[in-house]
Structures are given as structure tokens and as C-alpha cells.
Specification:
This protein is mainly alpha-helical. It has one domain (about 5-165): Up-down Bundle (Four Helix Bundle (Hemerythrin (Met), subunit A)). Helix content is about 60%, strand content about 5%. The protein contains six helices and two strands. Strands 1-2 form a two-stranded antiparallel sheet. Helix 3 (about 55-75) packs antiparallel against helix 6 (about 140-165).
């Protein structure tokens, strides 16, 4: 994916259109940062001893999409994809031996969770609330949080991509 292929957030619109547009822009940015890399490059850690990698970010963001939209907003009873209670960072830590099939599977899982999140979001009022982590959250809050989550991790992805092959950009 190239920068010009990313979703362009609207400059004018209601809350839903602007939040969804920025979230899709950041989702596309993650894909752009991973495009053209080998499975080995995608699983390279950012800097030792950190286990942060581009593949780990894809797996982590699949978990985040699943957690906030499916478990939170929609109230679906779905478990985690990668982590466990005993290994809460397994989405990052368990990529060192990832095969090409594992990489393809992680991207497929992420794409599925994004599709499902879009469906849930489109069908849910922004003021819808739900309880999670002993707090009440709104769907609007989730959208803002997801933009923040992707923006922060895309900063990490930008630095990792530059370290891996020198590619810089938006």
C-alpha cells in the first residue's frame, strides 16, 4: 500500500464520519508500514530487549479491535486471539519463530477484526455505553481511543520500518 492509497479522512462531517475516517486512515497506515517486508523483517524486534515488532503490532491491534468492538461495544463473548492471563504480552512476545503462514494468519485475523469492528460501529449509536474494566465507556470514546492507539503504534511502526530498510514517510 502506498500513502496515496490510504483512506482520506473527511475534512467536514459528523462525529461518526470523522472518527471512522481517521481510524481507517490509521489502519491503512499500519498496512503501509508493513507492505513489502518479508516475514523475517516483520518479526524483527525494534530494539533489544524489547519484543516490539511490526508483526507484534498487527497481532496486538487485532486483539485491541476485538476487545473494544466485539467484547466491549457489541458485548460478544469472544476470547483473546494471542495473549493469555499468564502471558499478557504474548501478542508481541510470541513472534520470533513466526512462519510465513503465521504472518498471513495474523494479517487475516487483523483484517477480520477490522471488518467486524466496522460492522459493529456502523450499527451502534455513538452514545451507546457498556461496562468494561469496572467502568462505563461509550462507543464514541472507543473510536477516539482507537485513533489514539493506532496513531501511537504507527509512530512505533514508522521508526521500525526506517530501521529495517530505511523507508521513511507519512
Amino acid at each position: 500500500m502506498k500513502a496515496e492509497d490510504r483512506t482520506e479522512p473527511p475534512y467536514v462531517g459528523d462525529d461518526r464520519a470523522i472518527l471512522a475516517g481517521f481510524l481507517d486512515f490509521h489502519r491503512d497506515t499500519l498496512v503501509m508500514k508493513c507492505t513489502g517486508l518479508t516475514p523475517q523483517q516483520l518479526r524483527e524486534p525494534a530494539v533489544p530487549p524489547s519484543s516490539l515488532s511490526l508483526l507484534g503490532l498487527v497481532r496486538h491491534l487485532a486483539e485491541v479491535e476485538r476487545g473494544w468492538f466485539r467484547r466491549g461495544v457489541a458485548g460478544e463473548d469472544v476470547g483473546p486471539l494471542y495473549y493469555t492471563e499468564d502471558e499478557p504480552d504474548k501478542d508481541f512476545d510470541d513472534v520470533r519463530d513466526a512462519t510465513e503462514d503465521d504472518v498471513e494468519g495474523a494479517f487475516a485475523a487483523w483484517r477480520f477484526e477490522v471488518r467486524r469492528a466496522r460492522e459493529i460501529s456502523a450499527a451502534t449509536p455513538l452514545d451507546h455505553t457498556f461496562a468494561r474494566h469496572d467502568r462505563e465507556f461509550s462507543h464514541r470514546w472507543v473510536l477516539v481511543h482507537m485513533v489514539e492507539e493506532y496513531a501511537r503504534h504507527n509512530g512505533h511502526a514508522d521508526l521500525m520500518r526506517e530501521r529495517i530498510d530505511g523507508v521513511t514517510g507519512e
